[in-house]
């Protein structure tokens, strides 16, 4: 029998899988990877630095024979049926107490099902979110493992070593029971959708509304990335404006079709929020606008039927300050809504998600990393059970000064016919959440009128129904 010597195995040697293994090898772990495509195994070995213990194989059995027991291995394959297919191939080769990690973007309900299925067979299973893209996988991602706590303890040294670090703290921690790891990653991606939508709207206001050039846009976003909105997404946005197209010589961003793709995780976030229920309108809007963008032929036709305004802002005084404050507010509301969803889901599904650790893990390595996460971390450290970040006094002190300028920017953008659905959703959510009274009493009266759905009163307890039509 082949000698068992490798610390960790990877199934799927695409760029993410390969880079994670190379990262592990750089930290002193011996690693082995399997892919049906032998060229990918060869690419893994040839990419390793001298002295690293790295091997690629083309059969699952070869990999499992060479892993030390209990085995620690991870899948990075497309979500859905491919994960179940890999598990079906793996199970006959596994031994009791082996650990299998799904590191892809699986839907949390699939992860919950697989946890029970694998546990019943005597195997450990974990769902784990990984954020940071190809570069992050190689240099230090944000890692969100959940599920089997015993299994986490056995893989924690490896995950801690390869994760991003902020202030010396690793951007990995146990995210909770059940499918918590994949649920946290799903909401992370929903927040990512939201912030990207908000940035694109600010781009439209500056470009369409005020005629900003790509150089001016680069300079502004680069300046913002040096201040209180420093973040990965603001940073890369500044970079995007400078990239030239090799074909035309134009700036590449101007040659990209305005039709956004998606892999479904934003939609999953919205769908689950509706089921909980918990309001996340900025994320919902981001998903919707991507869908609208896909209707490009219809949009082009509609533009001829409804000639638009000039899209020029009526006033550009203090525009950069207005845009900064509106983007800042919208970004905070995106985090607020995503974290509120995690809080509700943790309670609903008994996941015991530690919100302070979620925010700490997101501070480095991941796509939504931002200096704005620091005050959020402090809020959850002070009150781990905080239902909504807007109820924290320090968060309120951050939000309140941004409101007036956000209203001014939205008024200018709407007046110019520039679509700013995400920014509008952010402000409307804030206005609704901080309202002691909402006009939903009328809605409840209407529901009782046509459907006898009953209502509650403000002056006495109980449930009531009224015959609203005159007799």
Q: What count of domains describes the coordinates? A: 3
User: Ends: how far apart?
Assistant: 89 Å
Classify the helix fraction into a percent range: 40-55%
How much β-strand is present in the residues? Answer: 5-15%
Secondary-structure element series: EHEHEHEHEHEHEHEEHHHHHHHHHHHHH
In angstroms, what is the radius of gyration? 25 Å
Could you state the CATH homologous superfamily of the largest domain?
N-(1-d-carboxylethyl)-l-norvaline Dehydrogenase, domain 2
Determine the oligomeric state from the structure.
single chain
Class per helix and strand makeup: alpha/beta
Largest sheet: 7 strands, mixed
CATH class division of the largest domain: Mainly Alpha
User: What is the overall shape?
Assistant: globular
**Overall pLDDT level:** 96
Low-pLDDT segments: none
Looking at the structure, the CATH topology of the largest domain is N-(1-d-carboxylethyl)-l-norvaline Dehydrogenase, domain 2
Which CATH-level-2 architecture of the largest domain? Answer: Orthogonal Bundle
The count of DSSP E runs of length 2 or more, i.e. the number of strands, is 9
What does the model show?
With 471 residues, this protein is α/β, with parallel strands linked by helices. The protein is built from 20 helices and nine strands. The protein has three domains: 8-174, Rossmann fold (3-Layer(aba) Sandwich); 185-433, N-(1-d-carboxylethyl)-l-norvaline Dehydrogenase, domain 2 (Orthogonal Bundle); 445-471, Single alpha-helices involved in coiled-coils or other helix-helix interfaces (Up-down Bundle). A seven-stranded mixed sheet has the order 3-2-1-4-5-6-7, sandwiched between helices. Strands 8-9 form a two-stranded antiparallel ribbon. Helix 1 links the parallel strand 1 and strand 2. The longest helix is centred in the middle third of the chain and has 31 residues, at 180-210. It is globular. The N and C termini lie far apart (89 Å). The relative contact order is 0.09.
């Amino acid at each position: 029998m082949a000698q068992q010597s490798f610390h960790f195995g990877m199934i799927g040697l695409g760029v993410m899988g390969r880079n994670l293994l190379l990262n592990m090898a750089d930290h002193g772990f011996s690693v082995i990877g399997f892919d049906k495509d032998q060229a990918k195994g060869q690419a893994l070995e040839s990419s390793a630095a001298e002295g690293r213990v790295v091997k690629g194989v083309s059969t699952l059995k070869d990999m499992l024979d060479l892993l030390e027991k209990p085995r620690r291995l991870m899948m990075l394959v497309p979500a859905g049926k491919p994960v179940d297919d890999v598990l079906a191939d793996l199970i006959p080769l596994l031994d009791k107490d082996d650990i299998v990690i799904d590191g892809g973007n699986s839907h949390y309900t699939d992860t919950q099902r697989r946890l029970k299925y694998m546990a019943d067979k005597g195997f450990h299973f974990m769902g784990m979110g990984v954020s940071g893209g190809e570069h992050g996988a190689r240099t230090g991602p944000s890692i969100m493992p959940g599920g089997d706590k015993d299994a986490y303890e056995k893989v924690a040294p490896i995950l801690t070593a390869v994760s991003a670090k902020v202030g010396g703290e690793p951007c990995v921690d146990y995210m909770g029971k059940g499918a918590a790891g994949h649920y946290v990653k799903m909401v992370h991606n929903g927040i990512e959708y939201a912030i990207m939508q908000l940035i694109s709207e600010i781009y439209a206001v500056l470009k369409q509304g005020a005629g900003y050039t790509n150089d001016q846009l680069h300079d502004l976003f680069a300046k913002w990335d040096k201040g209180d909105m420093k973040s990965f997404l603001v940073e890369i946005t500044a970079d995007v404006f400078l990239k030239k197209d090799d074909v035309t010589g134009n700036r590449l961003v101007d040659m990209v079709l305005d039709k956004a793709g998606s892999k479904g995780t934003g939609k999953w976030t919205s769908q689950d929020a509706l089921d909980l229920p918990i309001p996340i309108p900025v994320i919902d809007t981001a998903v919707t606008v991507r869908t609208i963008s896909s209707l490009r032929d219809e949009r082009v036709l509609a533009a001829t039927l409804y000639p638009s305004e000039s899209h020029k802002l009526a006033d550009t005084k203090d525009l950069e300050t207005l845009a900064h404050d509106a983007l800042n507010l919208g970004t905070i509301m995106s985090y607020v809504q995503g974290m509120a969803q995690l809080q509700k889901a943790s309670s609903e599904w008994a996941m015991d998600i530690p919100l302070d650790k979620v925010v700490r893990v997101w501070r480095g390595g991941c796509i939504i990393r931002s200096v704005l996460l620091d005050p959020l971390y402090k809020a959850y450290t002070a009150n781990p059970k905080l239902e909504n970040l807007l109820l924290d006094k320090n968060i309120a002190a951050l939000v309140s000064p941004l409101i007036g300028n956000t209203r001014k920017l939205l008024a200018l953008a709407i007046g110019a016919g520039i679509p700013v659905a995400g920014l509008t959703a952010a402000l409307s959510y804030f206005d609704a959440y901080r309202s002691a009274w909402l006009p939903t009493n009328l809605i409840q009266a209407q529901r009782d009128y046509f459907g006898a759905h009953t209502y509650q009163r403000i002056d006495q307890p109980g449930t009531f129904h009224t015959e609203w039509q005159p007799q």
